[in-house]
Structures are given as C-alpha cells and as structure tokens.
C-alpha cells in the first residue's frame, strides 16, 4: 500500500525581512485529518509560516505542496486552503448565510447547492437559526463560528487558523477551544492552528510544532512536548519548570551519574530527551516539573531526593502549590494534591522518580 498524500508539505521554507530571518529552513509534513498547532512566542515566525501556505506571504525559497500539488507560486485565491483570522473578517453588509455561501458562489456552485451547504454548516456550528442575521447582530463567539463555517464551506484541503480565539474572553475562549476541536473531529479536516498560548495548543492538538526564532524545535504530541522536551527553550516555554544545571560525571550502561551542586544523581540515560546525547564531562540541564515531586520521600531506591523549607503555600482546589527553598539556594515550584498538612516554614523532603525528570544536552 502506498502512503496517502499528505495534506500539506513544506520543504525548506526560508523567509527574511531585511536582515531578520523570520523563517529559517522549515520543513514540515502534515497528514490529512490532523489538528496541528504551531506554538511559539510572539515574533517566532508562526504567522508568517501560516501566511506562506495561504499565499499572503511569499517565501524567499522552498516549496509548498497541498494535496501533493506544488502551489508555491499559485495566487492566494487559487490555493485550496482557507484561513480564519482573529478579527473574523466577515462581510458586514451580507447576512450570515450569504457570508457562508460566498466562497461557494465564487466557485460557481449552484444557488440551491449553496443554500444546502449553508444550512449544513449552520448545523455544524450549532447555530441553525441565525442564517438571516447580519454580523453586527452576533456575539464574538458566534461571529468566530460563522467565520469558521465560511472558511469550511468551499471544502478546502486544510483550514489555517491564525490565533482565531485571541479576541474572546477566557470562558468563551475555552468553550470555543472545545467547539473547534469537536468541529475538526466531525469534519475530519486538516486544521493548522497558530497560537502563543501553550494551554490552548496542548488541549486541542494531535500534534504541536514548537517554533523558536524561525525554526521548528520539536514536532510531537502534546504529551511528549511536555514530558520529553527536546530543548531548554521548550522545557521553559511549555509549562512550569524547575531547572537544574548539572554535569555528566560518568556513563555506565544505561545510567548516567550527574553532579548537581554537591549532590550526585544516578538517572536513566533514557531520560535524555534532547536529540543529542551528552558526553562524559558535559554540562546538561535537568528539568523537573512541579507535579513530579512527592513529599516526605523516605528511603526509595529509584529517583532523587531534595530537602527544603516551605516559604509559600497556595491552595488551588485541585492542587496545592508550594514554594520550597533548598539549603543550596534553589527556589523550587512544587505542586501536590490536597490535602496537604504542612505549614509555611516547615522543613520537608521531596522525592522525584527518576523517570519523571528530563535531561537536556543543549547548554
Ligand atoms: N511584512 C513584514 N515586514 C517586516 N517584518 C515583518 C513583516 N511581517 C512580519 N514581520 C516580522 O517577522 C517576525 C515574525 O512575525 P510573525 O507575525 O510571523 O510572528 P508570530 O510568531 O506570528 O508572532 P505573533 O504571535 O506576535 O503574531 C516579527 O519580528 C515581525 O515583526
């Protein structure tokens, strides 16, 4: 059996504005039906990459294929992809149904077929009764759903979404995240989503491409991005992190001995999550997420132990957040499940299982 043709293939895309390299040799294959998110801080090039696919930005070099066809030089209106923007961009003088039908009309679809498609999409976005309203009579969330329906109407090969929920307040934003994901599942369309919000990326996507300075640093499932960060930038950008500077003292079989301050940690070599594996004597970083700690360690064979003093404690319903200062001057973030019977100022022991930490060789 031959592999199905990917929805989108980017090959060696480069783009600079003057001396600024905004996209630096990005290659990316996106399979059909996948919800992928380009995640990264402001200015990392994610919008430019998305705009290159839809034809609103012109790469300096590289190739873009959609459904196996080279569209690198095709005009934006001839590309079989559609974009949804943060500011909706609905036509104010057209009704909702006319807005949704616009793309189909441009394709020369028959009036009755357009009406059917419009009704079908209003059902999909769960707003069957607003066909005759104008955009200014809709809420922000409703407008964004209509914008989504309008982009889906001509049955594009992929939908590109540039921070589409950025203008919505938090509650509505979370509702729309669920709604978007449900619509993607129901339609089976390829969605390429752009956001700088890691929670949004993690909660919706099958795959996340984390971008930094015009490059994709890791393409992986949300779970792997969080648990197995490939770079220090990713460990820091995605989720809260305790970072320890360490040195590889010895490698024996499938374990490493790290020196961390005055301590020695024996850890599985399999927990090196960067692509490059460190040599003996090399400086590395150890990442421990706040929820990877247990309190009151006792004697356990596997893992590392730390002790410190609780300086602050915040109850957050599902967890208790502790700030713990260690004797060697570190300030740790620790999340544990309630109930927690320790007061501020208490001396505690912390334990982290060796398979719950990540070692990164990119210092
Ligand atoms: N038309 C342009 N002319 C000059 N510089 C540009 C242009 N478009 C984008 N840039 C610059 O390219 C860089 C990447 O911009 P881009 O919009 O792709 O980033 P982003 O990751 O999407 O950020 P944000 O989340 O803030 O939108 C930024 O430094 C931006 O200022």
TrEMBL record:
It comes from the Bacteria. Gene3D superfamilies: 2.40.50.100, Nucleic acid-binding proteins, P-loop containing nucleotide triphosphate hydrolases. It holds the Pfam family ABC_tran. Residues 8-238 form the ABC transporter domain. Belongs to the ABC transporter superfamily. This is ABC transporter ATP-binding protein. InterPro entries: AAA+_ATPase, ABC_SmlMolc_Importer, ABC_transporter-like_ATP-bd, ABC_transporter-like_CS, Mo/tungstate-bd_C_term_dom, NA-bd_OB-fold, P-loop_NTPase, Transp-assoc_OB_typ2. It comes from Nitratireductor kimnyeongensis. Signal peptide: none annotated. SUPFAM superfamilies: MOP-like (SSF50331), P-loop containing nucleoside triphosphate hydrolases (SSF52540). One of its GO terms (molecular function) is ATP binding. Keywords: ATP-binding, Nucleotide-binding, Transport.
